[in-house]
Amino acid sequence: MAIVSRLIQKFNASYAEKPLLTTMITNAVLGGIADTVAQNITAIRERAVRKGGPGKDDFFAIEIHELDRKNRLPSTDIVPPSERLPPPFDFERLTRFMAYGFLMAPLQLKWFGLLARAFPITKTSGTGQALKRVACDQFIFAPFGLTCFFTFMTIAEGGGKKEIIRKFQDIYVPTLKANYVLWPAVQIINFRVMPIQFQLPFVSTIGIAWTAYLSLTNSAERARE
């Protein structure tokens, strides 16, 4: 707790002095963590496949292998079998995710500021205003953000217009549906409870799992291509 408290104090001090740069760096670091998690999941699955199954002492490989065995993914699913996933670790991919988080932070920060001004939360209208923010965020920014993500990643990977169109045809709608399962509840907590300086870091922290999912989805579609 003492370490967390010190980190929060340092973040607050840095945010007070340089809010934009602090947010951009925080977003980049959390994006890198998320992609590292995704790549490690891929590595565990690949190791299990190469061995013909997980070893007796490999707890995480056993768990993931059992999930793969019990829940075979159809060929049309967005995440292919383990043998078709990319290599264990890709530093270029890590860099792409960190760059995306870094570059998107100013836009996200402006967006949260716009929502705060458009729907101010008071003691008498807290929940209603928070729900309005969530509705705007999910129906306006979420589709736009996913568009930015898949476009940026495809171009950064060396793809062109055809690859972008294929990615939108194959995985955009399923990913948007998955977004609506997770983010409305997260954003209600975010807009209702979090001070504005913590809103984007909170979203990015919760988003480690979401970004890991996006990383797996994006890399799986790239492997399929």
Automatic annotation (TrEMBL):
Taxonomic lineage from the root: Eukaryota, Fungi, Dikarya, Ascomycota, Pezizomycotina
Q: Which UniProt keywords apply?
A: Membrane, Transmembrane, Transmembrane helix
Localization recorded for this chain is: Membrane
Q: Give the transmembrane region(s).
A: 97-119, 139-159, 196-216
Give the family from UniProt.
Belongs to the peroxisomal membrane protein PXMP2/4 family.
Membrane disposition: Multi-pass membrane protein
User: What's the name of the protein?
Assistant: Integral membrane protein, Mpv17/PMP22 family
* Pfam families cross-referenced by the UniProt entry: Mpv17_PMP22
Q: Does the keyword Calcium apply?
A: no
Q: Does the keyword Membrane apply?
A: yes
Its predominant location is membrane
